[in-house]
Amino acid sequence: MKYKIDVYIVDDHTMFNEGLTDAVNRSETVHVSRCFTTLNDCRLAMTQRCPDVLLLDISMPDGDGTDFCQWVASKYPKVRMVAVTIHDEYSVIRRMLDSGVHGYVLKSAPIDELITAIEQVWKGLSYISPPVEDVIRQSDIKAVRLTKPEQRILHYVCKGCSNPEIADRLHLSTETVKWYRKRLLAKFGVKNAVSMVALVLKEHILTECDD
Asked: Above 70 in pLDDT, residue 203?
């Protein structure tokens, strides 16, 4: 690969920038051309020339990374962005993803993972560190809201009851039970009842119901 992916780094810790630049520039595919310790310096530089990929921290002394990402996404939509941060709280992760970043990598991740993230987003894909994916998945599952009928259907599905058995116990038609099961699969983002039951039991979100 003759062309290297051009990268800007925005982080208010100079030592971090220097260390990350040195590590990234050992890659055969990525090159850090500029570093900035403020969002404003990066903003001014981007009016002259934009990078392929922008790596940035969230908490900066002169502004919020979320607002900056929204600005970049609206003004320079071709620039791909990766948040590189210590923040692994769901609320922060969600705000950054909603602001337009294409990748989210924790500072504790190895450099090889960051290189992979840069390459992935540059190709038009997205990349989220596995620990961050776990936070998102667990939070999204906890955010699932079930109606009383859905809770009762789920209860019996987890007990291994068939559709006719559930229909008989709840005095519903088999077609109605099938409809509820489809809704439950969609809410939990899984393809079949086996996966749903495994997820529900793992996350301890099964509601107790009277038989």
From this structure: no
